[in-house]
Fold this sequence. Notes:
Blueprint: E1 6-7, H1 17-28, H2 45-62, E2 68-73, H3 76-88, E3 94-99, H4 102-111, E4 116-122, E5 146-149, E6 151-152, E7 157-158, E8 171-174, E9 191-195, E10 206-211, H5 212-217, H6 228-233, H7 243-258, H8 261-281, E11 287-288, E12 299-303, H9 307-319, E13 322-323, E14 334-337, H10 344-361
Parallel strand pairs: 1-13, 3-4, 3-5, 5-8, 8-9
Antiparallel strand pairs: 2-10, 6-7, 9-10, 11-12, 12-14
Helix pairs in contact: 1-7, 2-7, 3-4, 8-10
The structure holds pyridoxal-5'-phosphate.
Amino acid sequence: MSERIFNFSAGPGCLPESVLEQVRQDVWNIDGSGIGILEHSHRGKVVDRVFEECEADLRSALGVPDSHRILFMTGGASAQAFLVPMNFLSKDRTADYLVTGMWAQKAMEQAALFGNPHVAASSADANHNYIPSAEQTTYSQRPAYVHFTSNNTIFGTEFHAEPTPPEGAPLICDMSSDIASRPVDVSKYALIYAGAQKNLGPAGVTIVIAHDHLIESGRKDLPPLLQYRTFTKELSRTNTPPVFAVYVVGLVAKWLLEAGGLGAVRQINERKAKHIYDVLDRSSFYRGHARPDSRSLMNVTFNLPNEDLEKKFVTEAKLQGMDGLKGHRSVGGIRASIYNAFPEAGCRALAEFMREFERKHG
Ligand SMILES: *Cc1c(COP(=O)(O)O)cnc(C)c1O
């Protein structure tokens, strides 16, 4: 595997190497069927097996209770940002949004097409470098739901506990960039959505975990493919689904279970992130973007003293086999995305490179 380098990409992110090895075989011939996974009918036995196992293994890995369905949808998290208000909001109602980053902001704006979004909290005053506290959050009266983004991929902040919505308000979460990175009590959520391409698999499938009651409460006067209940009824196979992406997510779910489940995965993720945050904490050369109490375990964001040094950092890191470190334009600087499948050795390598770079240029 010597030709592979450390891929710090924010998404699509890296996948476990054992999963990629299995994919290599199954693209040619899966389950001894003589046909590759890319070529099988979505109504055949092999794909039945793939979907059933993916669902069961995700349910087990993520601890999804029987009250909740797991749906395989398309359109990414971006489509969920409008499907949620389209299905569960109306012109005469308000939905509460915690605006902690660009994706949260975009989701809130889409809600205005269908009803009245209320900004219950916002971190825009400090370029989204923190997660607002409960005291800084003001909910409306009887919101249709409360929406938040658990990990702010661009800014490198993360909720360390879910917000507490007003009694009876469904909690909805864009968990695209930290799903499966730590244990979560799914029963607290009415709906969770995540594009697979950060922590769960390749681009092309969106994982939706939703309570039966919420699904049933959705509007019925929409095209079937825009209603969640259609995916429940037809087991996510109303039309041709992204079979390959679901298949890879299934392998990643098995890999999570083999790793010891999400408790074990969180410990590894904490260790990985610490290598890099420790360098930030001991340096006045690097400035972390996220406030320490709001730091993400998935995306570490920081700046250098000036843009020239930031460019040099990215170029030199690449020469040492570390790619994808350029920050998003709204923060600038550096972003190291270290999703589940990203190896700890890569975090150590980056930390070492950072210390060396500071010695040379600090
Ligand atoms: C990447 C990302 C998105 C956008 O996902 P798509 O699948 O490309 O639509 C939305 N929200 C968050 C938190 C993300 O990290």
